[in-house]
Amino acid sequence: MPHYSVWAPDAHKVELVLDDRKIAMSSGERGWWHVHDAPAADYGFSLDGGPTWPDPRSNWQPNGVHAMSRPMDHCQYTWHDQQWQGTPLSQAIIYELHVGTFTPEGTFDGVITKLDHLVDLGISHIELMPVNEFSGRRGWGYDGAFIYAPHSAYGGPAGLKRLVDACHIKGLGVILDVVYNHFGPEGGYAGKFAPYLTDRYRTPWGEAVNLDGPDSDTVRKFFIDNAIMWLSEYHADGLRIDAVHAFMDTSAVHFLEQLAAEVAKWARRAPRPCFLIGESDLNDPRVVRRWEEGGFGLDAQWSDDFHHAVHALLTGERTGYYADFGTLADLAKAYRSAFVYDGRFSVHRRRTHGRPVGNMPGYRFVVCLQNHDQVGNRAAGERLGHIAGPDLARVGAAMVLTSPFVPMLFQGEEWAASAPFQYFTSFQDPGLSAGVREGRRAEFAAFGWDPNDVPDPQSEETFQRSKLKWLETVDEPHASMLQWYRQLIALRRRCGELGCSQVGEVEVDFDEQARWLRVRRGKIAILYNLADHRQTLHIEPGRTREILLSSKQDVQSRERYVELPASSVIILGPRET
Amino acid sequence: MPHYSVWAPDAHKVELVLDDRKIAMSSGERGWWHVHDAPAADYGFSLDGGPTWPDPRSNWQPNGVHAMSRPMDHCQYTWHDQQWQGTPLSQAIIYELHVGTFTPEGTFDGVITKLDHLVDLGISHIELMPVNEFSGRRGWGYDGAFIYAPHSAYGGPAGLKRLVDACHIKGLGVILDVVYNHFGPEGGYAGKFAPYLTDRYRTPWGEAVNLDGPDSDTVRKFFIDNAIMWLSEYHADGLRIDAVHAFMDTSAVHFLEQLAAEVAKWARRAPRPCFLIGESDLNDPRVVRRWEEGGFGLDAQWSDDFHHAVHALLTGERTGYYADFGTLADLAKAYRSAFVYDGRFSVHRRRTHGRPVGNMPGYRFVVCLQNHDQVGNRAAGERLGHIAGPDLARVGAAMVLTSPFVPMLFQGEEWAASAPFQYFTSFQDPGLSAGVREGRRAEFAAFGWDPNDVPDPQSEETFQRSKLKWLETVDEPHASMLQWYRQLIALRRRCGELGCSQVGEVEVDFDEQARWLRVRRGKIAILYNLADHRQTLHIEPGRTREILLSSKQDVQSRERYVELPASSVIILGPRET
Questions:
Q1: A194 belongs to a structural domain
Q2: What is the mean pLDDT of residues B186-201?
Q3: Are residues B468 and B548 in the same domain?
């Protein structure tokens, strides 16, 4: 018989509402209400005689955000991953995927059918875009309403457990993307129960989460318990925390620090390493600095600067935030210092941004050539290869996969998938539905788009269009791109010196005019020709053996020189001994 | 011939407006506009052909906030304080005063006439409530409109220089209270020129200052230049920075850190020590932690917890934030740890508050028995002695002046002044005037006050009532209170062990039931009887000699015991050798 609890500190009466009856709840400490040993049935709560709302801590919303919650006993699932010991972040190669579009099925079980592909590719972890229950059946997941409930359309709690279990059996870790900085605009009933939100701060997505106002201890615990639930009950290996820059918290112990400390305390007893990765737009090393140095102690953070430096360089795009990037010097800075903006004036932001990282392991930073945001936040959701072409996509892959940071791929990137990744939603409220459609059009009209060319987020077609087409992987040019990714990943895994190193240890030189760049990592050199013509480049003694070449064209090499095709990269090492 | 400049990044045309003409300004870098060598005359600026507004960086508003600015040449003043070497914070005893009510004149020159009193008292620094130009002639100063301009009704720039000069000659330092977290509601023309404010955050006083949005570099510089101006051009010894908890700044380098670093850089070439003291409600040691430990590096901060612990104990008040205080244990915690709330749940805040200070010098914390806020934010502006009576006021003075932190007094405290310190304003706008009056009434109606008993802030009488009555200092009971303060201060200055020590070094024991508390500081013991009756207390060998006693009643002492009168304190030391 389950125990039902809910936090409603301002209510005078709370009832547990089951299918066929109401049960008065008893008032406990600090605003909690309880019923012990009530029947297991779909349920909700009624405050002060008002309407019935689903449970903010619901583990399962089998019929969506507006319907009743269903109790779930985590012990019902039998795990098979006892042998799994995890892979540390320092050796990780992450693969971001969206459950709904990764396979035709769009479910957790669908993902399971593709795990062999991922094992062959060589990645270490999959990272699932948010799997929490959100409004409708299609969506990116960042508009989560029930953060404890795996999305019903993906297969619910049991489906997620099957997926994690299957990954672990195949030697893959699982990272879950969690959103703690706001609630989605539809189905967010939490605010009806308690002060989860505050109007003292704003986020781009509405009211901020109440992390430092009255009753915030319990709000913080709501998120921290959630993080630990994914790690303990769902065996997740790590969490990616969405938009940590949107946490407004003036507490002496910042929410992120408390989260990291409590997860670390839990993880000390865990059978495998667990880690937290923040998405941060702050360029503030405090996010990943250790506690004893005044940091928040996250294990890693995304470094958008690296992405932007690569993207602007390879595509020539300079709109929006790409205005701050585009030179070889920027990319060199990213290699050397992680942050390109580390106290430098940003034209796009119209202010000085960031501070130097200092001495820190490279695995504190996750870098990518593409991710859901960078692809999906474009009007038409084009991938890098769609913009820059296959040669430069190969070059970009090498830039990420030979970097001293943790590399991350985005679903389908490895075979230059033809499908775009567009912004899709399936809000049920007509006003919201119209709002998101018009908002998207207006956003891109500002960049000169014809509103009719902007895909409608609410349309089923937009979602379908974003699904990967797996059949194309065996055809050219996809098959050879896949081969290139496999080679790069295998090389990174084989050569320790290509993995994560301390920030500041990578040697980079370049010629902005001639458009070549060389990265030295131990005995390996990675030499890029970014010019639109062949050029002859100097190679160093000791690094003359061709290990990998991105181009199918011939490379002319003699003594101390190599003639590289346009838009290509060669990886050179010492003669084999 | 002065050079005129103004920052107006969004203007297309800016004119310098003098009495009798307009001069087109030339556009410089990053939104600055300049005119070189124009006539010295009262001036303002007109943006894009609009109305004329005074200069946000005006050094002098001789006719108030709505009138023209007047250029000022800082070199005109001849300083006489070349011998002044300053007093470090570790040896400071601060005296907070409000220029308008400290003397009948209500001016900087008026303060000069009372410096001998302060020298006799034994304090080291005066701290002036904000002297920036605010709307009207009467006000606390926190509604500043021109932060570079010493208030015209106090005597303007020349008056302030005369006062600082006179202080230095008499061996007193000067701390200025500066308000960088908001602008006053009247006369704040800065926002007309540039994005000084942001609507992304809120403060209790309206829009927050733009410290991390577009163009915030120049906003930050506006405040930092101001801080350095007070130190360099006005020879201030330190600044007290109002409400640092209201700075909303997600930058990787927090505004406070940048401010402290730039002031420190300037101070390296200064002829005397300069320091920054923050008013912080965060209980976050980061505010005063050193940069290398991830701190902001302010020299000190106010510690309200100490005040609240003392006040609640002595008055028995438990309303508002005093609900969190009142036990001897709280005061003992304040002595030992600086923060009472250092990760403890606060009933008043309904959340966990603060974090431990750790190892830090005591002079990082400024403590007081009374200050402008604690007195003036009461409906009737009553001082501690008005509430708790003279015996407990004497006890409170000892608690502050023998503490391991930097003690601060509030004007008139030293003679138990009869004048209250009430909240007064003199806004000129009728709507604002009515708003502040009604707001004040509503605020205290919530605490059960009859609105008619709440003094009208806009009334001249409220201001006059708050003026100190100097003639009373020679009469009882004022004269003996003054004597008590002089003795305590002299003792603190004479005995090094009564000064600032490391946090955690003070030994305190107490009996909550019997209401006695003993503080040990080196060879000195301070023994408090807080009961309402005489009681016999144990004294230790080695600390048996009476150094000071707050009560005029007899003390019975024999061997290892002393019988202390109700509500009294005795300071004991070793036998003289």
A1: no
A2: 92
A3: no
**In the listed set A437, A472, A494, which residue is the last one of a domain according to the structure?**
A494
The whole domain housing B531 covers 507-573
pLDDT of residue B577: 56
In this structure, the answer to whether residues B273 and B372 fall within a common structural domain is yes
Active site residue A279: yes
Task: Classify residue A114 by its DSSP letter.
Answer: T
Measured between CA atoms, the residue of chain B closest to residue A346 is B214
Res. B559 pLDDT band, cuts 50 70 90: confident
Confidence (pLDDT) at B306: 98
Nearest to A252 among B293, B350, B355 (CB): B355
Candidate from A213, A286, A352 with C-beta closest to B294:
A286
Residue A202 domain-assigned? no
> In A, what residues contact B, Cβ < 8 A?
200-202, 212-217, 245, 248, 250-253, 282-286, 289, 293-295, 343, 345, 349-355
- B338 and B391 fall within a common domain: yes
In a domain, A27, yes or no: yes
Q: Is the pLDDT of residue A157 over 80?
A: yes
Q: How confident is the model at residue A577 (pLDDT cuts 50, 70, 90)?
A: low
Q: Which long-range contacts (CB under 8 A, 24 or more apart) does A354-360 make?
A: A354/A282, A354/A283, A354/A284, A354/B252, A355/A283, A355/A284, A355/A285, A355/B252, A355/B253, A356/A285, A357/A285, A357/A503, A358/A285, A358/A503, A359/A502, A359/A503, A359/A504, A360/A285, A360/A288, A360/A289, A360/A502, A360/A503
What residues contact A170, with CB distance under 8 A and at least 6 apart? A115, A116, A119
Nearest to B398 by CA among B386, B384, B387, B411: B384
> What average pLDDT does the segment A383-396 reach?
97
Mean pLDDT of chain A: 95
Q: Which of B468, B494, B520 is the last residue of a domain?
A: B494
Query: Which of B133, B165, B242, B330 is flagged as catalytic?
Result: B242
Q: What is the ipTM of this complex?
A: 0.93
Are the C-beta atoms of residues A538 and A544 closer than 8 Å to each other?
no
**pLDDT > 90? residue A423:** yes
Which helix (DSSP H) or strand (DSSP E) does residue B26 occupy?
Answer: strand B26-27
What is the average per-residue pLDDT within A480-496?
Answer: 97
Is residue B477 reached through a cis peptide bond, with omega within 30 degrees of 0 on the bond before it?
yes
**A to B CB pairs, distance under 8 Å:** 83
Nearest-Cα distance to chain B for A294, in Å, is: 5
Work out the average pLDDT over A268-291.
95
**B237 included as an active-site residue:** no
B488 with B524, same domain?
no
* A195 → chain B, closest CA residue: B350
| CATH code, domain carrying B46 | 2.60.40.10
Structural domain count, chain B: 3
Residue B477: which CATH number?
A: 3.20.20.80
Query: For the residues A554-572, what does the mean pLDDT come to?
Result: 90
